[in-house]
Amino acid sequence: MLRACGPGPGSLLLREALALGRRGRVWQRPQGQDTGVQVHNSLTGKKEPLIVARTDAVSWYSCGPTVYDHAHLGHACSYVRFDIIRRILTKVFGCNVIMAMSITDVDDKIIRRANEMNVSPASLASLFEEEFKQDMAALKVLPPTVYLRVTENIPQIIAFIEGIIAHGHAYSTASGSVYFDLQARGDKYGRLVNVVPSAAPEPAVDSDKRHASDFALWKAAKPQEVFWTSPWGDGRPGWHIECSAMASEVFGSQLDIHTGGIDLAFPHHENEIAQSEVFHQCQQWGNYFLHSGHLHVKGNEEKMSKSLKNYITIKDFLQTFSPDVFRLFCMRTSYRSAIEYSDSTLLEAKHTLLGLTSFIEDARAYVRGQLTCGPVGEDVLWERLSITKKAVKAALANDFDTPRAVNAILDLVHQANRQLRAVSKEAGGPRSPTVFGAIISYVEQFFETVGISLANRQCVSGDSGTAALHCVVDELVRFRLKVRQYALATPGVTGAARRQQLQERQPLLEACDALRQDLATHGINIKDRGSTTSTWELLDPWTTHQKPES
Ligand SMILES: Nc1ncnc2c1ncn2[C@@H]1O[C@H](COP(=O)(O)OP(=O)(O)OP(=O)(O)O)[C@@H](O)[C@H]1O
Ligand SMILES: [Zn+2]
């Protein structure tokens, strides 16, 4: 058992533990090239300048999925958030990222599920690995440079374990298992979390490890279980060793960035660090550990999880919402914070995206000269654009503060929208297409950078939803117009008879007003021009936006 000095390793408490400071050695500031970004490094519990060995080859290891079931929105959240960070590092800060991601295709959960389904662990894992890759593609997550399957790296893992044994930090047992000896690691254990390994002997009678806190590097095969031969007998790797061995296979003894969800910080990453630093006999294997916060279902403290059966699959989600809506939803909070899933927060992201696409359409129409124009406060807009660019870059350089960056953009769009709406009432006058062209180009480029397309309204709904939704709103607005025209028209009737007729039809007008108000809450703005025309547009995204976290 491991004794934690701070709060235990439950996901939310762990974040507090990370802030408490660590037992292990002091973090060594790496030598190399400064990316210009400050990142929150779990190794120090604070923001540090991100210095990488070479900006043209940033090494990044990402713990990948255990492929025993459908991927859910919790997984989506972690991989989308890191995908956004990867794109920002690449496109804004000029880094060329080499990303390696593990695929855990053999472990207890896979073996158990395969037995339940009466299929081989290999075919079960291959099925869900393929599905995971399809889900990631549907979410527009860029594939890693390489995927690394555990089952294809068994000789490398065995060699890695032999190296740890050779350095005196692991031991094999009579039953054919190998354990990492945490007592040998001493006070160097606890680089990420304030944890002291207990020296108490293993209490379980059916286990032959020396201390309760020692963890498995190699697990002796149980009857009927899939196995590989090794110097210690038939068996399979433990969970943590796979990442140390596979990351080292690609990147050697130095790693710039290592990522995963906050639940992986302890014990998984802590154990990876112990194994790798012993194997490479180095002081600091990974320089930066970044952890993403968990996705929770609203009102539920637990993270969304397959084991807790409180999950929404990525496929189901994408029936209703688009990958761009999910991306924007993820960007509205820091990647480190917990994120609450609810229909209302998703709808809010959807409305914001609709408002942005609507602005781009209007601004484009103005640039083309299809929107009536009057004088624009051009200098003000140029200044706003310049301020926004600086604010966005500063926010992204500050631990990838996407909520702040998005708010800066929404503020710019709000200012531009106000001018656009004001000018559209006045015909004639000087035009200012260049500044609107520059704003369109910048806003589109920002969202393109993080993987969101503003090209058309199609980007906001899942699968086939948007086109149908727009037709429905068109029909509804047309129908409402007919009702209004009927309520207001009094051909051939005058005087008291006219007044009475109007009074009788008053409820129809009230119903039309109520419908307009109801639709406004969904981001749809109906505009009546007398009794002859009704048009609709999407509300300014600013009106649906939330303030960033402080
Ligand atoms: N609810 C969640 N929110 C954010 N990230 C998550 C969530 N659940 C899993 N992750 C992250 O997804 C990645 C892959 O996780 P993995 O395949 O090991 O699933 P898991 O944690 O076992 O999921 P489950 O608990 O549903 O079985 C890890 O980085 C993990 O931290
Ligand atoms: Zn890992």
From TrEMBL:
Residues 392-429 form the Cysteinyl-tRNA synthetase class Ia DALR domain. It holds the Pfam family tRNA-synt_1e. Coiled coil: none annotated. The lineage of its organism: Eukaryota, Metazoa, Chordata, Craniata, Vertebrata. InterPro entries: Cys-tRNA-ligase, Cys-tRNA-synt_Ia_DALR, Cys-tRNA/MSH_ligase, Rossmann-like_a/b/a_fold, tRNA-synt_1_cat_dom, tRNAsynth_Ia_anticodon-bd. One of its GO terms (molecular function) is ligase activity. It comes from Microtus ochrogaster. CDD domains: CysRS_core. It catalyses: S-sulfanyl-L-cysteine + L-cysteine = S-disulfanyl-L-cysteine + L-alanine; S-sulfanyl-L-cysteine + tRNA(Cys) + ATP = (S)-sulfanyl-L-cysteinyl-tRNA(Cys) + AMP + diphosphate; tRNA(Cys) + L-cysteine + ATP = L-cysteinyl-tRNA(Cys) + AMP + diphosphate; 2 L-cysteine = S-sulfanyl-L-cysteine + L-alanine. Belongs to the class-I aminoacyl-tRNA synthetase family. Keywords: Aminoacyl-tRNA synthetase, ATP-binding, Ligase, Metal-binding, Nucleotide-binding, Protein biosynthesis, Zinc. Its EC number is 6.1.1.16. The keyword Metal-binding applies. In addition to its role as an aminoacyl-tRNA synthetase, has also cysteine persulfide synthase activity. Produces reactive persulfide species such as cysteine persulfide (CysSSH) from substrate cysteine and mediate direct incorporation of CysSSH into proteins during translations, resulting in protein persulfides and polysulfides. CysSSHs behave as potent antioxidants and cellular protectants. Its cofactor is Zn(2+). Residues 54-350 form the tRNA synthetases class I catalytic domain. The keyword Ligase applies. PANTHER family: CYSTEINE--TRNA LIGASE, MITOCHONDRIAL-RELATED, CYSTEINYL-TRNA SYNTHETASE. It is an enzyme of class 6 (ligase). This is cysteine--tRNA ligase.
